[in-house]
Structures are given as structure tokens and as C-alpha cells.
Amino acid sequence: MNLAVLSLNYKLAPVEVRERMDIPESRLAQLTAELKERAGLTELMVVSTCNRVEFYFVARDEEFATTHLKAWLNERAGADAGRNLERMMMLLSRRVALIHLFRVACSLESMVVGEPQILGQVKEAFQLAVRHGNAGAVLTGLMPRVFRTAKRVRTETQIARNAVSVSYAAVELASKIFDSLDDKIVLVIGAGDMAELAINHLIKQGIGRLMITNRTFANGIALAQKYQGQAFPFDQLDSSLPEADIVISSTGAREHIITKDRARKAMRERKNAPMFYIDIAVPRDIDPEVNSLPNVYLYDVDDLNSVIDANRREREDEALKAQRIIEEDVAAYDRWYDSLAVGPTIKALRQGFHAIGERELSRTLEHLPDLGAHDAQRVRQLVRGLVNKLLHAPSNALRKLAEDGNGKMYVEAVSVLFDLGQSAHAPVDDREVGEGELAASTDEEPEDSNRIIPFPVA
After folding, report:
1. With 80 as the cut, is the pLDDT of residue 155 above it?
2. Over the stretch 164-206, which tens digit does the pLDDT of each residue have?
3. N or C: which end of the chain has fewer CB within 10 A?
4. What are the structural domain ranges in the chain?
């Protein structure tokens, strides 16, 4: 079975669609269990960020699975999305899906090429898949390789140098809106990583005053103390909002924090002095209707593209280097995955040899009635050890030849030479054979059975 991915991302779907697809971690276990049963999936990893919702899955019937995953997305999108949603989805299979996953983890598919957050998000998605029992042999064999490749890209290219994050782009936009931020009061709603990144960039720009609010007041206080800002409880938002010239919001709220009515009241107290909102949350924290108010200007993550695009062009050469690294590592994974096909042959070879050994051993022991139980056991260990020693080198050679692309030819030759029959060509079940399991099933047996025990001759 092979990996496939159904993706709905910022390249095809606007933020108002993406925010409907956002999956809170608290519901992920229940949702993935339902999707696995409904779509007939054997493995499932869900990557849900502000820029993408992607289902990486393994299924016995990919077409059936895709139909049901699309149906679920349509349900989440709502009736008003209609047939347009189909054009916003992207289905990738086999090697193309592999390359896409590597590119996502290496941030080549990010709105901000080179940004570091996506790798952590993919790692978290895999850990959740493992925790909820949704990661089988394909994902557990694949994901460590994906993470190693992402590390290679970070160390062997300069793709992350001057990487513009969405938070950075938000601050850049604010600095372009005003000639100077020196006398401006900035309110940051939220205390997570994106909010802190925005604060970092704001401090470097030199703002007049920083205010911070967060539903968990202690987190807001900690952030305010770190950056010499002023924290206030979230329930005081209405009284503090009119003070802000710029509002940057980045929370995990499921509903709008800044409604049109809340923004209108703030403008009334400001006597219609201009106010700029920058919403870097998905789902969005600020009602898009706020933008219709006089002297109120609202920007969301999709509006930050122009700032980000200029930075992306600066790193195109590094992205090409990263793509070459990805292609090398995907090719290495392909060779490993192809090598799984030799597993049934090696298993059949071992079973056949051990069966012969056991038959000959039984015949020999019948003619040695005076042999004690202890010595008989040592003879058994001797025979099993000899079989393992004899098969160790050809098993490893067959596995290596398979990784070099010659596996099929040698599998057929070994099957004919040793009369292994159909058992050597049985399909590999990805649920049963993983990267570590293949090595364990083809190396010498553990404990004492792989050692030749000296047998004292009377």
C-alpha cells in the first residue's frame, strides 16, 4: 500500500474556507477515529495549520477513501462553498505525495518559504497519529526520514536565512502603514508563539507602547514582563481597545474576538482616528465586516502575501538546493520501500532451510537413543545456528540488491533455485512489515540460536 494526501491549502483555498476546516487538537482523536472507519483508512496523519489542512493516509481502496474524505471536507465547508470546494482540493498519490510531504516539512510549500514553524507542526501531527494509533508501518518507516531530510535542508542550505514569518510580515505591513511606529500604541491579542514573534519584530521597529491581553492572564503577564509591555485582563478588552492604533491578533479562538460592534464602539471613543487591525489567526479573530467601518483598515493572512512574495524571491536559489536534497532522500526511501518486496522471499528461504534442518535433526536423533536431553538440545542449537549463519550473508545481499533496484530479478532467481513456490511472492503487508521489523526478520535469530555451540564428541 502507498501514501496519498488530500490537501486543502492557501494556494487554492482562501482563508474564509481554510478557517472552517481548522481541527482543534481536543477533537482530533475522535475525528480521526471516525474518518478512519468512514473512509476505510489503515493509517492517517492530519496536518492542520493556518495555511493548510492535509490528510496523509494509507488505504486499501484509495478512490473510496478519497471520496469520503472529500465528503467530510464538503460538510465542514458548508452548503455555500458548493462545487467550488472541489477545485480547491488537491489529491496526490504515491511518489508525488511523498515529495509533497518532504516539501511541506522542509517549508518549501509554506506561504513563507524557510519558516521554521511548519516542521514542528508536522512533528506534532505525527506524534498525535502515533498516540492515537493511526500510524502504521508506512508512516513510522517514512516520517523519521522526512525529519532527517528537513534537518539536512536546514544545515546544508541558507533557506531559513532572513525567512519572513507571517508575524514579521504583519509588523512590516504596520511599518508601511505609518511613517513611524515611535509614537504608536500597539495591542497584541494572544500570547502564543506567533504573538511573541510579532512582539519581537515590533520591539525592533521601536514602538511607542505595547499592550498585551490574553484569555489566560498569567501568560499575558509573563509576555509583558519579558518585553516591557503592559498586560491587562481579557475582560477589559473593550475599555483598552480604543487606546490602540494597531491591533495584532493571534489566538486559537473558535469565534471572532473583535466583532463589528466592538470595533465600532472603539472608533466612537477614538473620535474616528484611524485604526489598523492585522489578523494573523486562522480561524480569524476579527470579523471581516470590521473592514467596512470608516477609518478602520483590516488585513488578514492572505493580505500579507505581497510582503512575503518579495522575500520568497530572495531565497529561490536556496529552495532549488533544498529540492535536490529532497529528491535524493525520496529516491533513497523509494529504494528502501522497494526492498520490502524481498521480505517474503527471505522469510520463505529461512522457513525452508529450517524445515530441512528440523527434519534431518529428527532423523538423526532417532538413531541416537543414548543421547541425553541436554546434549540433544545442544545439537538442536548447533543445527539452527548453522542454518542462520548460512542464510545471513545471502539474506543481507538480497536485501541490498533490492535497494539497488535489482530485487525482482534476484527474487525470481532465488525462488527457482530453492523451489520456494508462491510463498516467496506473497504481497508485503505494510501493517506487518516496518523498517525495523524487516531488519529483525532477515537477520540472524536472537539469543543463542545464532551461535554455533561446540558439541563434545564422546
Report:
1. yes
2. 667 777 787 787 778 788 889 999 999 888 888 888 888 888 8
3. C
4. 3-162, 166-304, 337-450
Q: Which of 4, 39, 50, 129 is an active site residue?
A: 50
Task: Assess whether the region 3-162 and the region 166-304 belong to the same CATH fold.
Answer: no
Q: What's domain 3-162's superfamily in CATH?
A: Glutamyl-tRNA reductase, N-terminal domain (3.30.460.30)
pLDDT of residue 179: 75
Burial of 30 (0-12, 13-18, 19+ CB in 10 A): exposed
Q: Is the pLDDT of residue 423 over 60?
A: no
So what's the pLDDT on residue 149? 95
Least confident of 70-74, 113-117, 363-367, 399-403: 399-403
137-156 vs 435-442: helix axis angle to the nearest 10?
110
Residue 50 is a catalytic residue: yes
* Nearest of 54, 31, 282 to residue 134 by alpha carbon: 31
CB-based contacts of 350-354 (< 8 A; 24+ apart in sequence) = 350/387, 350/391, 350/395, 351/423, 352/418, 352/420, 353/387, 353/390, 353/391, 354/384, 354/387
Instruction: From 146, 149, 98, select the one nearest 123 (Cα to Cα).
Output: 146
Q: Report the chain's C-alpha Rg in angstroms.
A: 30
The contacts of residue 364 (CB under 8 Å, 6+ apart) are 379
Say whether domain 166-304 belongs to CATH 3.40.50.720. Answer: yes
Question: What whole-number distance in Å separates Cα of residue 73 and Cα of residue 53?
Answer: 10
* Burial per residue of 231-252, b for 16 or more beta-carbon CB atoms within 10 angstroms, e otherwise: bbeeeebeebbeebbbbbbbbe
